Description:
The chain is mainly alpha-helical. It is built from 14 helices and 5 strands.
Amino acid sequence: MLDGKKTLFSGMQATGNLTLGNYLGALKNWVGIADEYQTFYSVVDMHSITVRQDPAELRKRARTLLTLYIAAGLDPEKNCIYYQSHVSGHAELAWILNCFTYMGELNRMTQFKDKAAKHADNINAGLFTYPVLMAADILLYQADVVPVGIDQKQHLEITRDIAMRFNSVYGDVFTIPEVYIGKSGAKIMSLQDPLKKMSKSDENPNSSIYLMDDPDTIIRKCKRAVTDSEAVVRYSEEQPGIKNLIDIYCSCLDKTPAETEREFDGKGYGEFKTAVGEAVVSVLKPLQDRFADLTKNKDYLDGVIKTNAEKAAYFSNKTLRKVQKKVGFPERIR
């Protein structure tokens, strides 16, 4: 706990383009908790290289992601926004935690099995020990809470197990993190397959709305969204396509499904889809304008990157030095 506030850690990978789902489901909510928590938001570029990346493209995407954090409303003076690779403590702690993690635990990680199936030509050790690096990310800052989706819940569980195992040997070293329970972020589904989550890695570009999509593209994608033949704007599990569009509309305009049903009572899907597209545009346009302004100010962004890396290193070193001492590494001569 820092400055009397609980600590929250989260991050996103510097791969692909952020979608509307990433924004409404996570980033939008991050912005609202700056005063409630001591926050660390990382661009987790070290995790990204478990899959082969083009070096120049990875650097570009990492900077784009960090800029989007700020453009979305995260104040870098209130939130520590930094590149994971700029803080060596992540890798150093991950090695130590590897020695407190069992092969059987890692073998049970479903995400490893999924990614290994997708990248059969590159099943590397980093992909296998990915959860240990994630545990280091969290434990390095003594995070009290971590916002996680269903696909990451297993990783938080192994983080807790590793931390408790270490603590049982060396005493009260790590804070045991809990799942962040705050305002629930909207779960935005694919526009082309509303039974699966909107993803930045989807091969069909019409399935996702990207944060940098222009207004015409956004409205076109909404008009092409898969619905059904009932032609009734109703919030129902039996109409997953329309339900997803209602979720998007409500999240953008802070409305309820019931209000949306009343608003479009007797109106067709065409009119509703256009309204959804316009609502998305109204939310993303300010973010896009802010992003454009930020990218022109190289000195400002470079300053944020430098200052926040130093801040992250300062806090992470407190934990790392304690851990190194506990396991018996020689003290550093200063």
